[in-house]
Amino acid sequence: MAAVPSAPRPIAGFDGSATPMIPPLNILTLATLFPNSAAPNFGVFVARQTAALAARDGVRVTVINPIGLPPFPLSPHPRYRDLRMLKRQDRWDGLTVHRPRFTLLPGLPDRNPAAIARAALPLVRRLHAERPFDLIDAEFFYPDGPAARLIAAELGLPYTVKARGADVHYWGTRKGSGAAVRMAARDAAGMLAVCGALKDDMAALGMEADRIAVHYTGCDQARFRPVDSSALRRQLGLEGPVIATVGALIARKRQDLVIAALADLPGVTLLLIGKGEREATFRDLAQGSGVANRVRFVGAVAHDDLPQWLSCVDVLVSPSDSEGLANAWVEALACGTPVVISEAGGARELVTSDAAGRVVPQDHAAIAGAVRDILAMQPARADVRAAVERFSWARNGQELEAFFRRTLDGYRPR
After folding, report:
1. What predicted TM-score, i.e. pTM, was given to this entire model?
2. d(CA 347, CA 352)
C-alpha cells in the first residue's frame, strides 16, 4: 500500500498562542457520480469520501452534482422523470449539494464537459464571489475532469482530478474523449488514482506519474462487518453454499462468466445483486445453461443493507473487464466474505492472503475452481476482514486534505 501522506506543514502566522495557524480550506467538488433521491446508490463512495473530507477541522466543501437532461422530444421519457423532480439544492450526508441541469445529448458524450461547464459556471461564479474557493476537485476523469478544466480556467483556480477506473480505461482511450482526458490531466495541478495499478495505466496514457498520488477508498468498518444473516437466508430459502456478484448488470462486469461457472458448482446458489440493461440476456443464459433454478436476480439493494447481504454469502465473485479498486470488494472483505476477482485494477493490492480470496483469469472454469478452493478452505471471517482493516473513511479524508494542501502549496499557474 502507498505510504500515508505526511501531515501538511504548519503555515506561518499565529493567533497569539504557540500553535501555528493552518488556513481554512474551501473546496468545490464537481461530481457527476453522486447519489440523489432518484438513485441513492449512485456514486455513494464519492459522497462518503466528500463527507469525510468535510468533517475535517478547517475544511469546507461545496458539492456541484450536474444533472444531465435531454431536450424535447426525449425529455418526457420516464427514465428522466425522477431526475427532473430533483431539487436544485439540497443536503446529502451533511453536505450542501447543488444540482444544476445541463443539456444531455444521448449518443454525443463528447459535448458533455462543455455543457456541464456552461450550466455550472453562473452558480460557481456566485458561490466563488461569496466565499472564494481554493481549489476545484473533479471526482471522475470524464466528463468531470474536462469540465473542471474549463471552469477553473474561467476563475483562475487550480483543479485536481481523481481517476476511478472506467473513466481512464474507457473514456481515456476512446476517440474524442481520450484527447479531453489527456488535456485535463496535462493542466491539472494534481491527480489521484484509487490504486497503484490505475496509476500505472494513467502513466501508460502519457500522464505524468510524479503528479499522481494513490488514494485508496475508505470503508465504514462499524457498518461493514460480519453480521448474523440467518434470518435473511431463511427468508430467501437459501440452503448450501451461496456466491454473489454486486454491481450493475452490464457487459463490463461480466456476470455471464459467473453464471457459466455455476454449471461446475453443483449445489451452489448465485445472487445477482444489482440491476441493468443485461438482465434479460443473463436470464436467458441461466436458462440455457440449466442453472436458472440456482440464480436469483435480487435487484438493487440499498447500500446500508449490503452488510447483511454480504454476510450471508460465502464468496463474492467479480470478474470485471476493468476496475480501479471496487468498493464492493473492500466492503465484502470487511464483512468477512472472501472474493474471487479478475486481474483488474488494484486486485492484487487487495487480495494479499489466501483467506482474502483469489485473483483469477476471466474464465468460467478458473472462477469455479477458485470458488471451490475457498468453499473447501472456509477461512475464518476475522482472517478475511484483516485484509481491509486499514481502510477507513477517517483516514481517507485525512489523506485527501493532505493531498489538497500539498497541491496548493506547490501550485504554480501554467
Report:
1. 0.88
2. 9
